[in-house]
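call fold target=M18 family aminopeptidase
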Amino acid sequence: MSQASCDTFNQTLCEFLAAAVTPFHAVQAMASMLQEAGFQRLQEARNWQLAAGGKYYLTRNDSSLVAFVVGSEAGPGQGMRMVGAHTDSPCLMVKPQPEKVRQGYYQLGVEVYGGVLLNPWFDRDLSLAGRVSYADSSGVMQTALVNFQRPIAFIPSLAIHLDREVNQHRSVNPQTDILPILTQLQSDDKPDFRSLLAGQLRSEHTGIDVDRVLDYELSFYDTQVAAPVGLNGEFIASARLDNLLSCFTGLQALLAADGSQSSLLICNDHEEVGSLSTAGAQGPLLRSVLRRIAGGDEASYAALTDSSMMISADNAHGIHPNFADRHDDNHGPKLNAGPVIKINANQRYATNSETAGLYRLLAAVEDVPVQAFVVRTDMACGSTIGPITAGGTGIRTLDIGVPTFGMHSIRELAGSRDAWDLSRVLRRFYNHSGPLFAVAD
């Protein structure tokens, strides 16, 4: 492994994580990288004219993205090498009528999105970002992204003197305990959150015509940026590693692939809340794209899906040194010891012996170590877009991920080598010539 290449990869990863503060901003950043690499943007409502060797991408809802290459040597009928990830992360989202004034403090009501670890959200410098719908002076609805960037909010802990049992019994009521404080108000001030947003839009977008804000999808985020940590920089600490790390890793692999084989990357929104949406993995996005790539012909579509494979990349649980008993004795993935094949007999992960075996072959070629994860038999198992994609398309699927600590916390931890190693194997997967699996007689 080239340490310089790994360091460059991680530096770019940290820059991406700093920009991708919401799914909308993540898609915007990925689209920019694709355009710089010569990918042509497609519109779903228009006819597609695809050519061998062509590179294309599209977005849906501004929060999901599909990028694909029509192979210069092997067309989609010979199989599509696919990688999937998700753009969303657990967070606190602003309610439609959020203004709260308590004890002279201007606060915003928030709704919990996904399975958030709530305690780490206290005592952090928070900013706000997302998508805003607004009316211009002509009465036409427009949309724009917004990002305050600077710390504008804080959720203070209750002092231990007022809660002596906090270190033994700390629970968080999401309705009453986690309202961020924005500012202090004078007695006659009347907060208007939509006016605040309108002013921020005008500040961010030169010349924008905002008559009034209609609605929004906004989430708070930690302003502390991604960074290497550890005595020797062994780790990367950041918000949203689950699962923007996989989005970035898959994207870098696609950009580095030679384009000879038909390849695809899909990054879906809404995985953390079940994936059932127009932009989620339970929606029609991937199936629609594959049918259009196949030309709408049923036989071509069947041939494409039968000869293809999806690698669902989503972070795995590294074995925590303080809580090692939460893992099966033989399945405790370590950070910086290689990507993790995720297996579950009850199909919470979509891995089978064929897809796992192919990944192990590709990893061996790249000299990348491989780990395996199976949840303790007496514990419930999470899931990914893998089983959803496999069930919705019939495509063979592998679930894999980079081992991580603190998953769903406001700040997570991953190894500094693992994402780079995964990207190398995914690039090999994209370049793999010939059938992915043996063809039955």
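return ok
The chain has two domains: 3-89+239-431, 91-222. The chain has nine helices and 20 strands.
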